Amino acid sequence: MSSQSDVRFTDFKSDKQPTWCPGCGDFGTMNGMMKGLAETGNDPDNTFVVAGIGCSGKIGTYMHSYALHGVHGRALPVGTGVKMARPDIEVMVAGGDGDGYSIGSGHFVHAVRRNVDMSYVVMDNRIYGLTKGQASPTSRSDFETSTTPEGPKQPPVNPLALALASGATFIAQSFASDALRHQEIIEEAIEHDGFGFVNVFSPCVTFNDVDTYDYFRDSLVDLQEDEDHDATNYDDAKKVILDADKEYQGIMYQDENSVPYHEQHGVTEDMSEIPDGAPEDAMDLVREFY
Amino acid sequence: MAEDLNWAVGGEAGDGIDSTGKIFAQALSRAGRHVFTSKDFASRIRGGYTAYKIRTSVDQVQSVVDRLDILVALTQRTIDENLDELHEGSAIIYDGERSWEADIPEDAAAVDVPLKSLAEDAGGAIMRNIVALGAACEITGFDVEYLDEALEKRFGGKGSKIVENNKEAARLGQEYVQENYDLDLGYDLETTDNDYVLLNGNEAIGMGALAAGCRFYAGYPITPATSIMEYLTGRIEDYGGHVVQAEDELSAINMALGAARSGARSMTATSGAGIDLMTETFGLVATSETPLVITDVQRSGPSTGMPTKQEQGDLNMALYGGHGEVPRFIVAPTTITECFWKTIEAFNLAEKYQTPVFLVSDLAMSVTEQTFSPEAFDMDAVEIDRGKLIEGDDEVDEWLDSQGRFRAHAVTDDGVSPRAIPGTTDGAHMSTGLEHDELGRRTEDQDERVRQVDKRSRKVETAKEREEWDYREFGDADADNLIISWGSNEGALIEALEYLEDDGIDVRIISVPYIFPRPDLSDEIDAAEETIVVECNATGQFADVIEHDVLTRVKRINKYTGVRFKADELAEEIIDKLSQEVPAQ
């Protein structure tokens, strides 16, 4: 690993030009991820990025690091395996609201419970963009799309509440366009001892004319400016996460006593190193069956 | 072959049948006798009939037969279920004090032992099965002291008091029969000085994984694959590894894939519907060129099928599962020792060719405990080949393009690319389930697509040339009758040879442990007058594949009752099949 001063965020950038629509929130989200990784002392050779499917899933191609772009909805299990086998590697999992809260929602709940020491960045645009505009699990109940002409008529998933209910140790929300705050929050998620979950409002400029840059700019309340909010306090977290009237950015909750999976389970070895033959005492395994 | 004894204990699920049988098997093994066990069990904690059967001899035994000599019956149903196998000279041990009125067939010797009362005398009714084991020792002329060792192994962790009580229970059973019965059924179990180990196929797979350097296992509990996970849990940690119970099989295979991308030797195992879920990720493993061992311990399907019953019905799934065209290897061990060796081979193949390897076992092998000389698992003979894994940072340089980017999917003569794992300087790269270029970046360029498809296919061609894809052979190599089998039927076929010889029929047996790539059997089938393919499924999936390979019709023996082949039954079926016409072309 290179020392912090050697690494610039552009080292995490590949030479592939993004095919996201001009103005897509994912540009800002990705910039914050790259800067956050660089600022926290990582370099591309000790970083593993796992990407899901959807517009957000393309991120592995536009970033430079060890990366896997996998099957729809399964990014978290891949990241979990990477980190368990190599605790020395910085793992960041990225995906969208469809990947994380629809097809992958089961994995989300259990990844949160496991509290593996990695970060999870969800680019939430409240729409399916890559398939050209269908309702997502975070779409508003009256949001009209090609497959829901009168709106989904069901409440959107509250991912922050889902995380809280699943026993999360770090819950945050950021806005792709508020570059500095977004980057700060990503850094906190990376440095958190455990599963650092950030839901990022990453507006889709093509298919979502409701959850727009203007909407978030006008309505988002920054928890940093709320002196009463104590992120280490569960009740404070609950209050803002379940607030039906306002949307927030910042760190909602951080469990100061978080014990990450590898500490809980004593998984600390580099599993890539193995001997040239069977382990020295391997005949003991056979003798167990006497 | 030396005389064999067939013993069974049966009762209701929840009666401790499995552990009782295992203790007796262990005692026989400690006495230097070979053992082959089978289980009839229902998928319920309590309520269904269940039995643990042991065939034992001083010679190697590798099949069950349709004969029962000693039966410990805890229920009437145990007797009724086994009526066909009992004979003149069989002994049935039962507890006449229990509420059921035992209806013992006339031929068999009824040995009424107050199991519960004697167990209570020894310290608790729970030990009634152990009393029965003591009684069985007396009837078979088997020294009850061998039971002691097995009881120590089974109960040692629960304290010496429990061990001593159990030893006492066994003695009370033995003495009761000695004092109250004057049986001469002719059983006299010989012992030897040989040391044997007793294990089942899933334990052999787990042990093979540890020997091969497997460090990560992710799985979701499912019968009959779970015991691989249970074996590894508590052992893999000694080598710095970890077992994780995933939330489902979709997650399990993706976790295993993640660990493999990290450079760990990694495995998952499942069965039934679990392998269906994992199918989603087969293509990703192949296109991202990730070395991964995927174990399928087949059980009876489709859907929930008969979860605790034998079948070899997943061959087509292993060959063709997953959309698109997925390069893969399929290895199917034919014996419990081969479960060990083929697991090691599977890990080597996976890393050498950066390809998914399916290790296809079956329920019969997973629950059968069998004795072997410990040398059958000679750890010094284990070889590890990690293929083109980049060990030093300088090795990366020759695989960088002109702009210094690592070519993780470089097109090479043998199809195999260099493999850099996280932490390797300048090795950072992307891999994906999308079609990609040498750098792992998405492409839909026609030439690039063809180059990458061909490259991945070429790995299989290279492996066909470089590796041995041999079959195992038994019987008379010059015989006109050829029997082909895959998976766990091998043992029953070998034992069927003896019955066939008695009828003057010579056969050549070819047992195939490689499903893909597989040995070319054209010459062998040409040389034979008759070819029969034996397998535990209804449609003859392997027979279809063989017919496709050699463009000729073969005869088929299929069993899909949920019970494995027995040697004597198989011999009869072969004789019957040989007399029939070959099906029309």
Automatic annotation (TrEMBL), chain A:
Its cofactor is [4Fe-4S] cluster; thiamine diphosphate; Mg(2+). The keyword Metal-binding applies. This is 2-oxoglutarate ferredoxin oxidoreductase subunit beta. Residues 132-155 are annotated as: Disordered. Residues 53-200 form the Thiamine pyrophosphate enzyme TPP-binding domain. The keyword Metal-binding applies. Keywords: Iron, Iron-sulfur, Magnesium, Metal-binding, Oxidoreductase, Thiamine pyrophosphate. GO terms for biological process: cellular respiration; organic acid metabolic process; sulfur compound biosynthetic process. Residues 133-149 have a biased composition (Polar residues). GO terms for molecular function: iron-sulfur cluster binding; metal ion binding; oxidoreductase activity, acting on the aldehyde or oxo group of donors, iron-sulfur protein as acceptor; thiamine pyrophosphate binding. NCBIfam families: PorB_KorB. Residues 204-268 form the Pyruvate ferredoxin oxidoreductase beta subunit C-terminal domain. It comes from the Archaea. Pfam families: PFO_beta_C (PF12367), TPP_enzyme_C (PF02775). CDD domains: TPP_OGFOR (cd03375).
From TrEMBL, chain B:
It catalyses: 2 oxidized [2Fe-2S]-[ferredoxin] + 2-oxoglutarate + CoA = succinyl-CoA + 2 reduced [2Fe-2S]-[ferredoxin] + CO2 + H(+). Its EC number is 1.2.7.3. Keywords: Oxidoreductase, Pyruvate. GO terms for molecular function: 2-oxoglutarate synthase activity. Signal peptide: none annotated. Residues 414-447 are annotated as: Disordered. Residues 13-173 form the Pyruvate/ketoisovalerate oxidoreductase catalytic domain. It holds the Pfam family POR_N. It comes from the Archaea. It is an enzyme of class 1 (oxidoreductase). The keyword Membrane does not apply. One of its GO terms (biological process) is sulfur compound biosynthetic process. Residues 434-447 have a biased composition (Basic and acidic residues). Residues 208-453 form the Pyruvate flavodoxin/ferredoxin oxidoreductase pyrimidine binding domain. Heterotetramer of the KorA, KorB, KorC and KorD subunits. This is 2-oxoglutarate synthase subunit KorA. It comes from Natrialba taiwanensis DSM 12281.
